[in-house]
Amino acid sequence: MARRSRSRNQAPIIPEIKFATIESLDQEGRGVAHVEGKTIFIDGALPQEKVTYQSHHIKASYEIANVVEVLKQSNQRVTPKCPHFGLCGGCKLQHLDFAAQVAAKQRLLENDLKHIGKVKPDNMLPPLFGPTWGYRHKARLSVKYVEKKQRVLVGFNEKATRFVADMNSCEVLVPAVSGLIAPLQNLIVQLSIRDKLPQIELAVGENPANARESAHVIVLILRIMEALNADDERLLKHFADKHQVQIWTQTKGPDTIKPFYPLNAAPLQYSLPEFSLTYPFKPNEFTQVNPQINQVMIRRTMQLLAPKAGESIADFFCGIGNFTLPIARSGAQVLGLEGLANLVERANQSAKLNQISNAQFGVADLFKMTPEALTQLGHFDQWLVDPPRDGAFELVKALDDSNRPKKIVYVSCNPATLSRDAGVLVNEKGYILKAAGVINMFPHTAHVESIALFELAT
Q1: 224 & 357 share domain
Q2: Residue 413 catalytic?
Q3: Are residues 370 and 436 in the same domain?
Q4: pTM to 2 decimal places
């Protein structure tokens, strides 16, 4: 018998509206409920709320949905500060009280350690948090020219789509950068390449001159797909002068990023006053987006490591030396290893600038580490590990009796991979998970930064 199919002219099936009681939050900041034997992930819902929802993604064992109506509100629900919340996909948790956001992230870390790693820390560290608004110093904004309306959109993508959100401000960006969104829209619509400019990457640093008129150095990298003409160049230079920003351009890969105007302007940099350190960086190089929390994170890391003069310490995935140089200030000998040569070059530059001679840096693919290669690096008393989201699985698997340090401090941007690696360290490599806790690097988002301390069992 032939299978019956819906006619092209037949109206699409609209999922029915159902009722749910929210149990928890998932790693994407969505409410989690169970209805008719299925797990339902509901965007916009909070724990303990009773809601109606409508699914837009239906699978055999789960559904993804949006809230239709909140029937019983959580007492932790607040009014979002940003007028674009709910449309813009940049933030997921502005409707949840800030203290509750931090608590939810701590619970998520505990659950991942328990269920993924099969481990439990001896101690949960107090969470680290700081400024809740205007904290973001780096971002990548999408650009879209809407020909029918003869206007340009500049901002983050809409929630769960690739469309650019119609926004004119952002509460989590540095205020000076948020104030540039509308002027950028007005600028780009005048350019000849308005439809050939898909992205603006921004980076904010400290002003080394501490000029009264501006506390920041702001760099905008324009991703341009066609050459600028003379009028374009004039408009961009006028914009840079008026708003006290630097314009850089990128035509193809990262190696094509270069300053456009003004040339020889103030460099980007950030500082760690507690350790008398200054770090120069290029606008496309990785640095923490939240410099205030970065300082607090480094302070806690140093407390957990407690490095001493004469010790040998490895900093794996060292980047530009964010942790390496503070450790070196203790007098310990530090080796920083990183997979990207340009970041190693920048780390060496910072070591020289800060007159640090007891830190060395090298390029290494840490995702392909072997026990033999690890042993060849020499013995280290302690490790600092700060990997990207994929974690440090091959590195921790390479540990054996010949190369194990007595202590490992692991900084993570993904609690799932931290928990996986913690399982290896505790259940296979002879370590004790002494402490763990969250660092709220990205307020109002579902992103969870965390830190864990492992000590070799005696």
Answers
A1: no
A2: yes
A3: yes
A4: 0.92
